[in-house]
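Dear colleagues,

As part of the handover before I leave the project, I'm documenting each prediction I ran so the next person doesn't have to rerun anything. This entry is a single chain, and its sequence is reproduced below.
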Amino acid sequence: MEETLQELKNWKAENANKYGILEMGVFGSVARGEATPESDVDVVIKLKQPNLYVMIRIERELGEYLKKPVDVVSRNVDNLYLKRRIERDMVVV
């Protein structure tokens, strides 16, 4: 987990201004310390200007950077189940 968190911090430091990232964190197995080498990385992001195109681009870039599957969701997600999981597990990077 620590290695993935550090990689995410590094990526965020290099790209936050480019994409207008206000907040970024992980949730799911990585945040809970239960990730396996096959696990994807669940990332939650809050942008200055919500934009689906930007979210997709971030997801693709993070996947290439981490060399793992990445799922990116908005901090403003409407799905109540997902929102609760994020609130319960999120580790801010």
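Strands lie at 21-27, 41-47, 70-74, 91-92. Helices lie at 2-19, 29-32, 52-66, 80-89.

All the best with the project,
I.
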